[in-house]
Design a protein that fits this description.
Layout: H1 2-52, H2 62-75, E1 79-82, E2 93-96, E3 102-108, E4 114-115, H3 121-129, E5 134-139, E6 142-143, H4 145-154, E7 156-159, H5 161-174
Parallel strand pairs: 3-5, 4-6, 5-7
Antiparallel strand pairs: 1-2, 2-3
Helix pairs in contact: 1-5
């Protein structure tokens, strides 16, 4: 008798769950579709990163990333001086553009995550030391909100992953 009662209760439970599912499946479907729609920009950015070669930077060492940036700036028509890896006074590259504007560039290569605000001072120090016009930080990932705010106040140019993709795409289309 207990078994039959258990079976009836279990059957009733699944019957109710099925009825709930039947009535709510459009909401579940809408939630799944909404999540897919929200991911479209991220998926598109990942596609562009792969196509432009920026995803290759995720597997580079810090020095390899600096060399990657050197080559990128040179393709853009800039003169680039790659500094030694230590005692660089806060810059990894000194870039001179076509208008003779000098940039102290700090490269921040990360596997994942975001570059924080504490690095904002590094290229500013280098800008003064190397007598540059502009301080710049380039990363293969992104920046924290605080880093963006402090960079804006200090007039430090920030290039994130999306900016690297745009530049790479422009240079590939320029060929």
């Amino acid at each position: 008798m207990k078994f039959i009662n258990f079976f009836i209760i279990t059957f009733d439970f699944f019957k109710v769950m099925f009825e709930v599912w039947i009535s709510l499946w459009p909401l579940f479907l809408a939630a799944v579709l909404w999540q897919l729609i929200l991911r479209i920009p991220e998926l598109f950015l990942n596609y562009r990163a792969k196509k432009s070669g920026v995803t290759d930077t995720d597997h580079m060492s810090g020095r390899e990333f600096e060399i990657y940036l050197k080559n990128l700036f040179e393709k853009a028509g800039c003169k680039v001086r790659l500094l030694q890896g230590y005692k660089d006074h806060g810059a990894d590259l000194i870039v001179t553009d076509k208008r003779n504007k000098r940039y102290a560039v700090q490269a921040k290569k990360l596997k994942s995550g975001r570059v924080g605000a504490k690095v904002i001072g590094e290229p500013l120090r280098a800008m003064n030391y190397y007598k540059c016009d502009v301080a710049m930080i380039v990363t293969n990932q992104n920046f924290t909100k605080q880093a963006k705010e402090e960079a804006k106040i200090a007039n430090v140019v920030l290039w994130n992953r999306e900016e690297l993709i745009k530049i790479s795409e422009k240079l590939k289309n320029k060929r």
